[in-house]
Amino acid sequence: TDALVGDEQLLRDKLRDTVAAIAGLERAKGMPPEKVLMLLKGLVVDADAEKLGAGEARSLTDDVVRWGIEAYYAA
Questions:
Q1: pLDDT band, very low/low/confident/very high, at 12 (cuts 50, 70, 90)
Q2: Cα separation of 3 and 56, whole Å?
Q3: pLDDT at 3 over 70
Q4: Contact at 8 Å (CB) between 68 and 38?
Q5: How many whole angstroms separate alpha carbon 72 and alpha carbon 22?
Q6: In sequence order, which residues have a C-beta less than 8 Å from that of residue 59 and are 6 or more positions away?
Q7: Which residue among 42, 43, 58, 75 is the one 20 to 30 A from 24 at the CA level?
Q8: Residue 64 and residue 50: Cα distance in Å, rounded?
């Protein structure tokens, strides 16, 4: 189980880094923050997050939005 927890954390870290990269690139291109958030939410939907339980999908979307906002304004 420790290996699974480690793998999950590694995937979350990679996802956070990817979200941050997307948010930073879109900000550099001049995309307004609300459109970046729509893009990020769309990516979660496109990744079939709805196949998760409702709570897990909401939590994932919340994390992606938070990471995107943090990265957008840090850029």
A1: very high
A2: 21
A3: no
A4: no
A5: 9
A6: none
A7: 58
A8: 14
